[in-house]
């Protein structure tokens, strides 16, 4: 490689297999079956990689364009955790290249028609805690393999047409099925149609109103606001308590907590000798 012919190339691949290639060279590059486009879909800052297990101090940034990475796809989480590989390439002879980064996209922020994403190196998972946590509440995620509960039944999922939405955060329905108030708290609201299709968020409050009405409040506003008539799916939530697992989901055999574990008050209480 010579310094005058060096450029950089990025390949970012989503979990569904869709991938895009970018380069800071002024013409397209091709290698490993990928075309790296010379546009502003993505750029990367100077990499600062350490020998420890901390996140590499780098970011990827770019424009939100229809032909590359769209705001809607980012809001829908399609690029969350996407794999990213960065090379230094001799554009005059692309076989002369070296990989300088491999990892994934972390936290993504958006503003003024652009995005910025943290780059996380391959060592990042080693920072996570491993092993079984002994806690009175369940450690499984509702509906995952450890939980084993099928949420596809009518008891735990409801499909509705949206009637009113306030600030992309509060959803109101006038004709709601007969569910207990709070049934969908900690659950998930997903948009199935319209401009906001694919967006989903966790439910903060589920309030039963008079005459069969319902108000669903999210923890944060959706990036694209649904409108009246859009199809909405609500999925029930779980507070991880053993009573909820047994009475609401009839799934106590799969409960992944330790409800009879003594609490801190018992552990700190003075012990009396026999």
UniProtKB/TrEMBL annotation:
A Pfam family per the record: Phage_phiJL001_Gp84_N
The Bacteriophage phiJL001 Gp84 C-terminal domain, residue ranges: 182-265
Protein name stated in the entry: Bacteriophage phiJL001 Gp84 C-terminal domain-containing protein
Species for this entry: Paracoccus seriniphilus
Species lineage: Bacteria, Pseudomonadati, Pseudomonadota, Alphaproteobacteria, Rhodobacterales
